[in-house]
Design a protein that fits this description.
The chain is mostly beta strands. The chain has 1 helix and 12 strands; from the N terminus they run ββββββαββββββ.
């Protein structure tokens, strides 16, 4: 058994990112009033893992203006029982002003990100949709492709609607959604 802050948690097999990874990808440190997020992981050519971590104050929201849009793919007809589609998450804010001192410039470059909690809703009998990761973090003006795995069973309805919602962690009242209309392919019997 390993407890929080146990050095053995650094073992790669115990620390993952994304949905269904077998571990938590967020944690609230109530004593220090911080919320931690594991946003992504990458492996370099040598096989060394690095993690993209986000940290948010529980006491005061960030200075972001909280502008975001979600762009859905064009309506889709499935060729198989399953496949991926890609939504685009775009942060439409402008950068907050930076502190001009060289020491603070490096820090302020990392303070303009907002963290978005992603969720899916599916309307249609026998249809499923899954996110690979339920978090995204963007700098103002940047965008990210959000892959969504969609599947349907043999007896599904002929069409479905998949809604992706992005909610700001800095301002949970700010959310935006986009809908993908999808039809079952010729393989549906």
């Amino acid at each position: 058994m390993r407890t929080i802050a146990d050095y053995r948690q650094l073992n790669d097999a115990l620390f993952h990112a994304g949905n269904n990874s077998g571990s938590l990808n967020e944690w609230e440190d109530l004593y220090n009033r911080l919320h931690f997020y594991v946003l992504d992981l990458k492996k370099n050519k040598e096989g060394i893992l690095s993690y993209k971590i986000g940290i948010r104050s529980l006491d005061r929201p960030g200075k972001q203006m909280l502008g975001v849009t979600v762009v859905s793919p064009s309506p889709l007809q499935m060729k198989n029982h399953s496949g991926y589609c890609t939504f685009i998450l775009r942060d439409t804010d402008k950068m907050a002003e930076k502190n001009p001192s060289p020491r603070d410039l490096e820090i302020s470059n990392n303070l303009n990100y907002d963290i978005y909690r992603l969720s899916l809703a599916v309307e249609g009998k026998g249809w499923n949709a899954t996110l690979m990761n339920n978090f995204s973090s963007l700098k103002p003006g940047n965008s990210e492709n959000i892959p969504v795995y969609i599947s349907h069973d043999k007896y599904c309805s002929g069409s479905a609607r998949v809604t992706l919602t992005a909610r700001s962690e800095n301002g949970p009242e700010k959310s935006v959604s986009s809908v993908l209309k999808i039809k079952a392919g010729a393989d549906k019997k």
